[in-house]
């Protein structure tokens, strides 16, 4: 996902370009806005964390771009491309180093395993939206 801060700050095109340049193939893509129910569900693994309420509020504060990306070793390579959760700790050349504001408003989300990528892909897209 490209998160609300990235879109608010006008970085949609630049981030998508970095993703394509890094060799990811876009299998599905959608410009949308999460409802509170959807954001709560998407981040339910973090429900007990102190930042959960702020996370849900922020993720529903504006539109997002959801995408399914394909590449050899996609999960690890995408996490390397986006950089550390906190942009202050993100390496040079990563999306979060270039475009994230803070640990909370950190521009992008990437799935942390193949299993979660499958779940999160199905969360955003139905079969005829994936190519
Ligand atoms: P993401 O990769 O989308 O997965 C969970 C999100 O929770 C994470 O990115 C951050 O945006 C957010 N998050 C993690 N830790 C914190 C924190 N300490 N404070 C605020 N938000 C956080």
Describe this structure in words.
By secondary structure, the protein is α+β, with helices and mostly antiparallel strands. It has a single domain (4-129), classed as Alpha-Beta Plaits (2-Layer Sandwich), CATH 3.30.70.141. Helices cover 42% and strands 11% of the residues. The protein is globular and about 35 Å long. The protein binds adenosine-3',5'-cyclic-monophosphate (CMP).
Spell out the key features of this protein.
alpha+beta; 2 strands; about 130 residues; Alpha-Beta Plaits; about 40% helix; binds adenosine-3',5'-cyclic-monophosphate; about 10% strand; 7 helices; two-stranded antiparallel sheet
Provide the low-confidence segments as ranges.
none
Strand line-up across the major sheet = 1-2
CATH topology: Alpha-Beta Plaits
How many helical elements? 7
* Largest sheet data: 2 strands, antiparallel
Strand portion, in percent?
5-15%
Instruction: Write the H/E string, N to C.
Output: HHEHHEHHH
User: What would you call the structural class?
Assistant: alpha+beta
Describe the SSE topology:
Blueprint: H1 4-8, H2 12-21, E1 25-32, H3 36-42, H4 52-59, E2 64-70, H5 74-82, H6 95-99, H7 114-124
The structure holds adenosine-3',5'-cyclic-monophosphate.
Summarize the structure.
The chain has seven helices and two strands; from the N terminus they run ααβααβααα. The chain has 131 residues and is α+β, with helices and mostly antiparallel strands.
């Amino acid at each position: 996902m490209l998160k609300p801060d990235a879109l608010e700050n006008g970085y949609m095109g630049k981030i998508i370009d970095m993703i394509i340049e890094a060799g990811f193939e876009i299998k599905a893509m959608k410009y949308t806005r999460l409802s509170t129910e959807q954001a709560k569900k998407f981040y339910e693994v973090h429900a007990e964390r102190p930042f959960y309420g702020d996370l849900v509020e922020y993720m529903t504060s504006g539109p997002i771009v959801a995408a399914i990306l394909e590449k050899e070793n996609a999960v690890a390579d995408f996490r390397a491309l986006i950089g550390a959760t906190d942009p202050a700790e993100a390496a040079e050349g990563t999306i979060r180093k270039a475009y994230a504001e803070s640990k909370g408003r950190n521009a992008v989300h990437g799935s942390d395993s193949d299993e979660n990528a499958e779940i999160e892909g199905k969360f955003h897209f139905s079969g005829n939206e994936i190519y």
